[in-house]
Design a protein that fits this description.
The complex is a heterodimer of chains A (146) and B (453). In chain A, 55% of the residues lie in helices and 3% in strands. Chain A contains seven helices and two strands, in the order ααββααααα. Chain A has a two-stranded antiparallel ribbon. In chain A, strand 1 (63-64) and strand 2 (67-68) form a beta hairpin. Chain A is elongated, with a radius of gyration of 21 Å. By secondary structure, chain B is mainly alpha-helical. Chain B has a single domain (4-452), classed as Cytochrome C Oxidase, Chain A, CATH 1.20.210. Helices cover 77% and strands 0% of the residues of chain B. The chains are: A mainly alpha (146), B mainly alpha (453). At the A-B interface, helix 1, helix 2, strand 1, strand 2 and helix 6 of A face helix 1, helix 2, helix 6, helix 7 and helix 8 of B.
Chain lengths: 146, 453
């Protein structure tokens, strides 16, 4: 029968081994040769877009790469789906945007900020998501095939 | 209650109750918004309600864990807390940081990172607060007469939870890297170190409520937390399938997250077995219900419902849908909310000296809240499956699919009303206990109580 010290050894040993494996896999994931995010394409505009994405808590309603609020559309391939002018028009709108009844407050972004958001979305749209983007954005896929 | 300083726990539990009530209110705001009734949009838009709802959850659970530690550690270490004054300072500062964060969310002051919306300036205050908490608890433990496994596991969980908060404070230019390390906090909290905290509280409650030998309970506690880390650490990979990192996580995350239910299954079997093994029962039936309930519901909510969509082949369809919300609600309720309510139910008669062990309202609160949340979870699950089918199989637009699932949110709101009634009753019963009193000191020793029952 298992003793208390054997149980403790199982806990400590198992934790140590899996933790080390986890660190190793993390390092492996972020090796430049394994990059799937086109990290080299991140420029000032993309960083500004990410900052705006966070400071306005866009993720509170929308989702990006499947992560977010599930209240408003997934935006992973939004530039392919909706086009740059429409995205900028929504972000710069001085009035509430309410398609299908769900409201998005007026953000009244400047031209520069709206452009930065578009650049951020473009960068996101090029990431290799291991096939998720083909499922979540069927319209974008159809568009690409036309 | 053996030590006067354990009374500090009462105030943490009271704050817990207030935050929990507020969390439920914001949940209703979100639910009504989903069925088109969003009259509060100009003041509390959906993303504000969501940030408040999820952050209050985290804060009230952490407050509950802290209250539990302030109650459990003196008893386990067999000495008073090293400083009661500092514990109150910690409580007040925690409440102030929480109020500042929640207020800020109503004025567009946040970071927009799911579950970690607190601005980084406030993050530093959180760190100071948690360091103070850990200082009090760990000093008490190591100055105490004994360091039990239960206390060590609980403290290890609290310490790791504090350490794991740090990766979430680092700024990354890449959304992918940001998301990757955000999960170090969120996943490794809820599917890792929080399970240590849960295990520690559960072990303490089982020792007290069943009278089973501590050595037996603590041996199995090691096995359970061992299984938790063995599966949970590499199980983080199930969040990495589709966020732009290497495909190796599809295999690693799939295999190890499929093992995650084992820890919860072990926890459920452990609790039920210890309850049956205990030859005599404690008179605090309400606490027993919440304790055994937590172990079973956490297995269903966190274990089974998590497993239902954790494999990459399934998750590619369910990732980012209401299926996740379904799992999240039942997992948090079973694993963490119920265990906090269990320790509160156990501690309150001992802190206040009022032997309200087994009363109608207490049982009603348990059943209403549990039936209510089960209904909510079923409604969310149906909405999630319909959403997956319409949106990801048939290629329907997001908003069109949302219109189709609206009816399920009506059902969810009805069930939420039942849930809220149960929670309201629990909170009412909590405050009916009254304040802590010195007269409760050294009364209600477990062996006497068990023998008397």
């Amino acid at each position: 029968m298992l003793s208390k010290s054997q149980a403790r050894a199982f806990f400590l040993g198992g934790t140590l081994v899996t933790f080390l494996a986890f660190i190793g896999l993390t390092v492996y994931s972020f090796m430049p040769s394994n990059d799937q995010s086109n990290h080299h394409l991140i420029d000032e505009q993309v960083i500004r877009g990410k900052h705006l994405w966070e400071t306005n808590n866009c993720m509170g309603c929308h989702s990006l790469m499947g992560e977010g609020g599930y209240y408003a559309p997934e935006l992973t391939k939004v530039v392919d789906r909706k086009g740059e002018p429409m995205i900028k028009a929504i972000l710069q709108s001085p009035v509430t945007w309410a398609p299908n009844g769900r409201k998005m407050g007026p953000y009244e972004m400047s031209e520069e900020d709206a452009q930065a958001m578009v650049e951020f979305f473009k960068w996101i749209g090029q990431i290799d998501l291991n096939g998720f983007d083909r499922v979540v954005s069927p319209l974008a896929k159809d568009k690409a095939n036309q | 209650m053996k030590y006067k300083s354990q009374q500090v726990a009462y105030w943490f539990f009271a704050l817990c109750m207030l935050l929990f009530a507020l969390q439920v209110v914001y949940g209703f705001i979100m639910g009504f918004a989903r069925i088109g009734m969003d009259g509060l949009h100009d003041f509390i838009p959906f993303h504000t309600a969501r940030a408040v709802h999820t952050n209050l959850l985290v804060v009230w659970l952490l407050t509950g864990f802290m209250g539990a530690a302030y109650y459990i550690i003196p008893e386990e270490a067999q000495r008073e807390l090293v400083s009661v004054k500092l514990a109150y300072v910690q409580l007040i500062s925690l409440a102030l940081v929480g109020v500042a964060a929640i207020t800020g969310y109503h004025f567009n002051i946040w970071e927009g990172r799911k579950f970690l919306e607190i601005p980084r300036e406030l993050d530093y205050l959180v760190v100071v607060n948690v360091l103070l908490f850990l200082g009090i608890i760990l000093t008490t433990l190591f100055k105490g007469k004994r360091q039990t496994t239960t206390a060590l596991v609980l403290c290890m969980g609290l310490l790791f939870a504090a350490l794991l908060y740090l990766p979430g404070m680092i700024w990354f230019d890449s959304q992918v890297t940001d998301s990757f390390f955000r999960w170090w906090v969120v996943h490794l909290w809820v599917e890792g170190v929080w399970e240590l905290i849960m295990g520690g509280i559960l072990a303490f409650l089982l020792i007290k409520l069943t009278g089973v030998d501590r050595e037996v309970i603590e041996k199995w506690l090691y096995v359970i937390v061992g299984l938790t880390f063995l599966s949970g650490i590499l199980g983080t990979g199930h969040h990495y399938y589709y966020i732009g990192v290497n495909k190796i996580w599809l295999i690693v995350g799939g295999v190890f997250s499929a093992l995650e239910p084992l820890a919860f299954l072990a926890m459920a079997l452990f609790a039920v077995y210890m309850y049956r093994k205990g030859e005599k029962t404690h008179p605090n039936k309400i606490a027993l219900f919440w304790t055994i309930g937590a172990s079973i519901v956490s297995f269903i909510g966190a274990g089974l419902l998590g497993f239902a969509h954790t494999l990459p082949q399934t998750n590619i369809y369910t990732h980012g849908t209401l299926v996740t919300a379904m799992h999240g609600h039942y997992a948090f309720w079973g694993a963490y909310a119920m265990i906090v309510l269990a320790i509160i139910s156990y501690a309150m008669p001992n802190i206040t000296g009022r032997k309200k062990f087994d009363n109608f309202n207490g049982h009603l609160a348990f059943w209403l809240s549990n039936v209510g949340i089960l209904g909510m979870v079923v409604a969310l699950g149906v909405a999630g499956v319909v959403q997956v089918y319409l949106e990801r199989r048939l290629g329907m637009e997001f908003m069109v699919a949302q219109e189709e699932v609206k009816i399920h949110f009506v059902v969810m709101l009805l069930c939420a009303s039942l849930f809220a009634t149960g929670v309201g009753l629990y909170i009412y019963e909590f405050f009916k206990f009254g304040k802590p009193t010195d007269e409760a000191l050294k009364k209600h020793e477990e062996p006497e109580l068990i023998a008397a029952s």
